[in-house]
Predict the structure of Histidine phosphatase superfamily.
Amino acid sequence: MLRIISDLDGAESGPEAVLVCTHAASLIAIGRALTGVMPEDVGTEDFKPYTCGLSKFVRRRVPGGEEGEAAVVWEQGMAIPRVDWRGGKGVAGGWDCVLNGDCSHLKDGAERGWHFSGDESFMSPTDGDAFVDDAETGTSGLPGARRERDDGYSGNGEGSKL
């Protein structure tokens, strides 16, 4: 989120609004990062991701607006910065959720809501099992990560190479 917001902040005629269409788990993670509120129990139903639901986040303040405060800028090739977003701070100045999973525009209202149940496995990259590829899929064990296997299969589709 920091990279997206940083890019938009840096644009000469930056947008007034951004529409993000995403899955439920991503919406919950984005909402927590923007607001800076990360509950102790990941299963807490803080954001309401329903099919075709609308959530709106309004920025509290733009970083760098106060004397001595610098906006965090992240550019390609730089190490990913550690952002102190928890404790209500939020990413890039913090955001308030002013519309949470609104489905009033839908004939049948809210449908197919989702939340973390607490059964999900969140492995740390420092966890020794995080990189075990028991299914021999060619992945390193991290989402989106791919590596080529000895047989040339990359896990990205039939005959594909990285």
Notes: The chain has two helices and two strands.
